Amino acid sequence: MSVKPTLLIVAYHFAPSPLVGAKRFSFLAREFTRMGFAVHVVTNDMTETLHGREDTSLPISGTVHRCAAPFEVPLRGTGFARRFANLILRRVLAPVGFDYFWARAATRKALEVAGNLPPGIVIATSPPHAALIAGARIARRLRWPLILDYRDPWSAYAWPQWHRSWFTQWVGALIEARLVRRSAARVLNTPDMRGWFEESFPDAAPDRNFVVPNGFDAMLAGDGPPATGPMEIVHAGEIYGGRSLVSLLLAVERVSARHPARPIHVTTYGPLPDAERQRIRDAGLERFIDDKPRIPFAALFAELQRAHVLLAVVSSHMTYSTPYKVYDYMAAGRPILGLAPSGAALFELLADSGAGECAAPQDVGAIELALERLLYGAAPAAQARVERFHWSNLAQQYRTAIDTVAGTQAAGEKPATAERQLFDL
Question: Which residues span the domain enclosing 415?
Answer without folding.
Answer: 6-215+392-420
